[in-house]
Amino acid sequence: MLINALNDALRRLQAARVALKPPTLAVYSQLRYYHVMDTPANPSPPSEPKNPPLRPRPQPFKQPDTTAAEQPESQSQPETKRRPANSVFRYLQVTLIVAALLATLFTAWTPSGLMPGGLEQFQIVTPVVNSPITGVPTATERPKPRIGIIAGHWSKDAEGYDPGAVCPDALGATKEVDVNYNVAIRVQQQLNTQGYEVDIFQEWDNRLSIYQAMALIAIHTDSCEFINAEATGFKIAPTSANTISTRLAACLQDRYAQATQLTIHPGITPDMTSYHAFNEIHNETPAAIIELGFLNRDHEILTQRPDVLAAGIINGILCFVRNEPIATATPSPTP
After folding, report:
1. Sequence-separated (6 or more) residues with CB below 8 Å from residue 164
2. Beta bridge partners of 238
3. Spatial contact of 271 and 312, defined as CB atoms under 8 Å apart
4. Which residue, 241, 249, 250, 317, is CA-closest to 281?
């Protein structure tokens, strides 16, 4: 009975070889071992039936060919040929050359309108609407520094005309007012070019009342009569209303002496220290009066070189305004 069961199992295994993995040689040998153990040593011949059933002859077991199944996947597939390293660099070199050629051709054939210099025609111009902005303070122009110049004895009114000192015919009948005005107008013009606002005043001018400026200079000229051999040179006197005017007078003395090569004359008169304009202008306005020279002994420079005289006054004013250093001593207002 056991033998029949084993035989039946063998038949089923053979029928299922397609779906199941065939048994190994060890399993088959084990089955044969059990078959031999169940067979008696001296079996008695069984009574054979008249028509004994045909027993299928067992087929010898063949070891399945597992080499193909156990072969690694890398060996079962066809081996891919590796490209040499030189070919990779060759492909890269060809690609770069083709790209360079294409870029060159694109640049050469690009229309001028698409180049950076021709992009102006494609710019979108947004119109600017000038609308008033409220609440924003407007910039105001900074006022120019103001300087006042008095042309001594000059008057536009014929009735109040005072020529000042008048020289004899031997000296060309020179009038002091003409010398003073010629120098004053040159000072105004030169300072205007340097950004200063310059006011020219008559000797008696209503605008001098409470006048305020960075500096006020009164220009006069000394006597045309021969006094003595020492009657030469210039004089300067500051106002006593403020101390800053002493600095202005010192700058005028230093720069005027350098420009004209004239010497300072010590004879300061009360008409200079008590000059009427000093009492009319604002008491904080720096002011000084200058006598350009003597019309007698300094006649040539006073009448022939007004530009030199004007340069000395301009340099003196700028020395004071710019706070430049000076080398000469401060003039004394004593007579």
Report:
1. 152, 153, 175, 176, 177, 180, 220, 221
2. 288
3. no
4. 241
Cα–Cα distance list, 216 to 60, 291, 299 (Å)? 144, 14, 25
Pick the CATH number of 146-321 from 3.40.50.790, 3.40.50.2000, 1.10.260.40, 3.40.630.40: 3.40.630.40
d(CA 168, CA 224): 8
Question: Are β-strands 146-151 and 215-222 bridged in parallel, bridged antiparallel, or unpaired?
Answer: parallel
Q: How far apart are CA 251 and CA 312, in angstroms?
A: 10
Structure tokens at 287: 């002011």
Amino acid at 162: D
Cα→Cα distances 165→152, 221, 295, Å: 11, 8, 8
Strand 235-238 relative to strand 287-294: parallel, antiparallel, unpaired?
antiparallel
Is 201:149 a contact under the CB 8 Å cutoff? yes
- Residue 223 · residue 165 · CB < 8 Å: yes
Domain ranges of the chain: 1-37, 146-321
Q: Kindly give the confidence (pLDDT) of every residue in the chain, 335 residues in length, as a single tens digit, with 9 standing for 90 and above.
A: 555 665 666 677 666 554 445 544 454 455 454 444 545 555 555 555 555 555 555 555 555 555 544 454 444 455 555 555 566 667 777 777 877 767 766 665 555 444 444 444 434 444 444 545 555 566 566 788 999 999 999 998 866 678 999 999 999 999 999 999 999 999 999 999 999 999 999 999 999 999 999 999 999 999 999 989 889 999 999 999 999 999 999 999 999 999 999 999 999 999 999 999 999 999 999 999 999 999 999 999 999 999 999 999 999 999 999 999 997 555 554 44
- Give all strands of the β-sheet with 197-201 in edge-to-edge order: 197-201, 146-151, 215-222, 287-294, 235-238
Helical ranges in 223-305 per DSSP H: 244-260, 270-273, 299-304
Shortest CA distance to 328 belongs to which of 253, 246, 248? 253
DSSP 115-163: SGGGGGGGPPPPPPP----TT-PPP-PPPPPEEEEEETT--S-STT---
